[in-house]
Amino acid sequence: MNKLLVYQIAILTVLYIGYGFYYITRKSVILMIPHFRQNETSLFNISKNDIGIIISTQNFAYASSKLIGGVLSDVFSCRILFGSGLFLSGLLNIGFKRDIQVSYLYSFSFLIGLVQGPAWPCCGKLLQNWLPKSQFGTWWSILSTSSNVAGSLGPIIATSIALNYHWSYGFMIPGCISMTVGYLAIIVLRNRPSEVGLTNYEETNVGNKTKTENENVQLEELGFKTKSKMLLSYPFFISICLCYFMVQLIKTLFSDWSQIYLIKSFKISNYNASYFLSIFEFSGIFGSVFSGILSDCIYYAKTKRYEELISKEKTISQQRPSSVKIRMGVNFIFFLGLILSLNLFNYFLHGKISLFFLLSIAGMAGFFSYGCISLLGVIAMEFTPKSFSGTSHAFASLAANFGAITAGIPFGYISKLYTWSYGFKLTEFSAIGVCFFLMLCWNSKSKLELVNINRKKQ
C-alpha cells in the first residue's frame, strides 16, 4: 500500500468519525430534553417555545460561526481548526451541569453552535487538497453521510444511555469520545500532501501548465471585503446560493414539520408519521452518495474524451469540461425531483393514504434533497481556486442556514396566519421560481476568473 493511499484512508476515517461526533455533540441537548425530568430534574419544566428558542439560538450561532470558519479555513490550518473544535465540543458536553436552568440551555446551545462552525468548511478543504477532482464529489458525498448515520443512531443510543444509567452520561460519553477523536485529529490530519513529502494535486489548464500557485499568491493578497464583492458579482454564484437556500428550506420543512403536520392535519398515526421521517433521513444517505458518484462519472468521462482529442492533435472548438457546470446540471435534475416530491406531498396526501405511497414520497424527498445539498457544497468550493474555496463555501452555507432559519419562525408564522398546507404550497411555487432563475444564469461564467483579480489590483 503506497504512502498516499495510507494518508488518504487515515484522513477520511478521522474526518468521518469526527464529523459524526460533531453532529452528536451539537444535538446533545435536543436528544436529552425528554429525559431531563428524571431524578434531580423532576421539577424541571421546559415549554415548546423554549425548545424553539434553543434550536434558533444554536442555528444562529452555527450559521455565523460557519461563515467565519469558512474564511479562516483559507488562512489557518484546517487540521488545528477541525481538531480543536471537536475537542472543545467534547469539553462543553463533559462540563454540562446537572442543575439545569432554561437560560443555561440557551447559553450552552449557543456555545456549541459557535465552536462547531469551522468543522464542515475544514472537511471540504481537506478533501479538496487530498483528492483528485474526479473523485472529489464522490468522497464529499460519502463524508456528508456521517451526519445521517449519527442522526439515525444518536436518538437510539441517547435513549438507551438515559434509561439504563442517567441522562448526564448522554453528555459525558459523547464528550469524552469527541475529545479523544479531536486530539487524534490534530495528530493524524495533514493540510496537504506536501506536508508529508508527497506531491499536491494541482489544477491545470489545457497545456498542463500548473496555475494554482499563481492563483494562490494573488488571492492571498485580497481582503475579505474584496473577495465578497468578487463572489457576489457573479450571477452563477448567486444562483448557487439561492438554490442552496431553497433546498435547505424544503429539507428543513420535511425534517422538522412533516411529522406533526401529518399527525395534526391528516390524523395519520404517530408510528406512520415517524416512519415517514425515518425513511426521509435514511434515503438521504443514498441520494447524497449517488449524486456525488454520478457527477464524478460524468466529469471523468467528458474529461477523458477531451484529453483523447487533445492527444490526437485535432482542432477543438469546445472548451475543457467544467466540473461546476456538470455538477450544476446534475443538481438541477435533483432539484426538479425535489419539487416533484413536494408536489406529491402537497396534493396527494389524505387521511387514508397507503403506507407504501406515504413512504415513497418520503424516500423521494430525502433522496433528492440530500443529493442537492451534497452537490451544492461541492459546486460552491469548485467555483473558485483552492485558496478561495473556504470563503465561497462559507457564503453558500450561510444562504443554506438562512433557508433553515426561514423554515422555523417565518414558516410557523405563515402557517399560523393561514394553514400548514398554504405554507408548503407557497414553498413549492417559490422553488419553481428558483428553477427559472437557475436557467437564466446557466450561460453566465461558472468559474471565478483571475482577470477580475488583476483588475482589482489596478
TrEMBL record:
<feature type="transmembrane region" description="Helical">
    <location>
        <begin position="393"/>
        <end position="414"/>
    </location>
</feature>
<feature type="transmembrane region" description="Helical">
    <location>
        <begin position="231"/>
        <end position="254"/>
    </location>
</feature>
<dbReference type="Pfam" id="PF07690">
    <property type="entry name" value="MFS_1"/>
</dbReference>
<keyword id="KW-0472">Membrane</keyword>
<protein>
    <recommendedName>
        <fullName>Major facilitator superfamily (MFS) profile domain-containing protein</fullName>
    </recommendedName>
</protein>
<dbReference type="GO" id="GO:0035435">
    <property type="term" value="P:phosphate ion transmembrane transport"/>
</dbReference>
<dbReference type="InterPro" id="IPR000849">
    <property type="entry name" value="Sugar_P_transporter"/>
</dbReference>
<keyword id="KW-1133">Transmembrane helix</keyword>
<keyword id="KW-0812">Transmembrane</keyword>
<comment type="similarity">
    <text>Belongs to the major facilitator superfamily. Organophosphate:Pi antiporter (OPA) (TC 2.A.1.4) family.</text>
</comment>
<dbReference type="InterPro" id="IPR036259">
    <property type="entry name" value="MFS_trans_sf"/>
</dbReference>
<feature type="transmembrane region" description="Helical">
    <location>
        <begin position="328"/>
        <end position="349"/>
    </location>
</feature>
<feature type="transmembrane region" description="Helical">
    <location>
        <begin position="169"/>
        <end position="189"/>
    </location>
</feature>
<dbReference type="GO" id="GO:0005789">
    <property type="term" value="C:endoplasmic reticulum membrane"/>
</dbReference>
<feature type="transmembrane region" description="Helical">
    <location>
        <begin position="104"/>
        <end position="127"/>
    </location>
</feature>
<dbReference type="GO" id="GO:0061513">
    <property type="term" value="F:glucose 6-phosphate:phosphate antiporter activity"/>
</dbReference>
<feature type="transmembrane region" description="Helical">
    <location>
        <begin position="6"/>
        <end position="24"/>
    </location>
</feature>
<feature type="transmembrane region" description="Helical">
    <location>
        <begin position="274"/>
        <end position="301"/>
    </location>
</feature>
<dbReference type="InterPro" id="IPR011701">
    <property type="entry name" value="MFS"/>
</dbReference>
<feature type="transmembrane region" description="Helical">
    <location>
        <begin position="355"/>
        <end position="381"/>
    </location>
</feature>
<feature type="domain" description="Major facilitator superfamily (MFS) profile">
    <location>
        <begin position="6"/>
        <end position="445"/>
    </location>
</feature>
<dbReference type="InterPro" id="IPR051337">
    <property type="entry name" value="OPA_Antiporter"/>
</dbReference>
<feature type="transmembrane region" description="Helical">
    <location>
        <begin position="420"/>
        <end position="442"/>
    </location>
</feature>
<dbReference type="InterPro" id="IPR020846">
    <property type="entry name" value="MFS_dom"/>
</dbReference>
